[in-house]
Amino acid sequence: MVTGLRSAVMAVSAAAWSSAEEGARVVEETSPQGSGRFELRSVSVAYGPETVIEDVTMNIPPQAVTALIGPSGCGKSTLLRCLNRMNDELGNVRVSGTIALDGQDIMARGVDPVDLRMRVGQVFQRPNPFPMSIYDNVAYGPRTQGIRRRDELDAIVEDSLRRAALWDEVKGSLKKHAFDLSGGQQQRLCIARALATHPEVLLMDEPASALDPISTQQIEDTVAELKRSVTIVIVTHNMQQAARISDQTAFMLRERLDMPARLIEVGETRKVFTNPDDPRTEAYITGRFG
Amino acid sequence: MRLSRRQRARIFEAVARALLGTAAALVVGVAGFLLLYIAFRGIPGLSWEFLTDVPRNRGREGGIFPALVGTLYVVFGTGVLTVPLGILGGVYLSEYAPRSPSTRFIRLAVANMAGVPSIVYGLFGLAAFVLAAGIGRSVLAASLTLTCMTLPVVITATEEALRQIPADLRHAALALGASRLRTVWTVVLPAAAPGIVTGIVLGLARAAGETAPILFTGAVFQMRRLPDGPGSQFMALPYHIYTQVTSVPNWNRDLVWGTAFILVATVSAASALAAVWRSFKRRRTAW
Ligand SMILES: Nc1ncnc2c1ncn2[C@@H]1O[C@H](COP(=O)(O)OP(=O)(O)OP(=O)(O)O)[C@@H](O)[C@H]1O
Ligand SMILES: [Mg+2]
Taking the mean position of all CA atoms in its chain, how far away is CA A286? Predict the structure, then answer.
């Protein structure tokens, strides 16, 4: 099936396809075990009658950071929400094409979005802790899964906070209300909360855009550490950030407002930033538009 | 003399400030005067006997204990019915209802219910609960009638409070694999609790103070004992004031103003308690 799709896709967007392959291959050599790998084939998304993303085909390699870049409104968040089927919650969204996680079609009938979302966590643009204690925030996902045993929850909470690099700052005050943390701490709490269900993939939609430089740095360090165990897809408007933290970069662009966005180029970050195949990528990266 | 743009803007600003300040002072002044006046007239009638004794000599002497208890009963009954129904209705409208003409119709109906005069509720309660349902004039019939009146307030307040909660917060719970119900129950409702409680207190305060809805549905002029259950008739503070002034010659000014003071004080205490709880609960919000 993949081969059939491949030839169909190659005809439409040969350039994007070949660079997707290239990016994936480069990263896979460094982390061979493949869990948390996404394959998108001809993915299109429409809000009501308006198609906003058309024909996106790319691979998201496991245990690596993939950055989604592109001007505002080009559908980065929309594409991200396809990966955990959060678009389902918006009501008027139609997604077509195929999206496979570790070889399994996530849009198939039998797939429960609840199971998918345990495997694909999400961190939002603005820190959005629940109005409850630090502990209860992190334990929310596991409790939703039915874990009730105190010692088990304690272990998950500690482990998740450690992975999000927040443990040392809050270990003495887990009962404290989450709103009493700083913005940067709240965002790391949200990362810990997403990690608590042991997802294979973490989706991050501009996770540092509402934060100060030091908090941003901490988030970036966390991402660098996390990618050893989790696949990360991050949306960012900050080119330096994309260049610093990602292994693969995908550039999306809506060339005209009445046209859907397309994937212009995807490939190894170093290549995309130093020697992009497409002149539009270069123009965007060097700040000539967007 | 020609004024520059800047000078004109400054004058406009000063005039606007003065007008707004006057309006605010007027509102505060009237409310303050009202409360002070009620306190001034009401406090002389207060005594331990007034609070704990039954009315004597048709209410000219003795106390208001049965009316105080009756009002608490009816408000409690109204609360038990209104709070769960109102919250469920508000949750439905905000979280579940499809964006359709029928939903818009429901919302319109709820808004209109809030505008129906209270005497009409009284009449409806008499027809529906007292007579048709055969409940008779009682605490229950009055509570049901007051529930009809209070429900739209609580539904609307709940819906509004839920709408204030950013979509991101819901999405965070859904993205963790929570169902819609779990999301609403564990995240959205607790976050909206301050607004919902405000609505509940406002609605119940109005229920406590209304005379018309209980007029035909269970309130009586005088009782020497307390209501002994939901089927019993009852005395109530607002109705007590009404009957004293309209049907007792030489009514005791001190005792009636005292009754008004107790009514206002009880309702204000509830509002104040809710305000304290809210400020205790409202932290630096993250959104
Ligand atoms: N719920 C929605 N209903 C209808 N249209 C939507 C919805 N969400 C997004 N869109 C439209 O889809 C397009 C892509 O939006 P999206 O939020 O994915 O862009 P983005 O790349 O994330 O932008 P930004 O960088 O500003 O966050 C935009 O034209 C937007 O107007
Ligand atoms: Mg976005």
Answer: 24
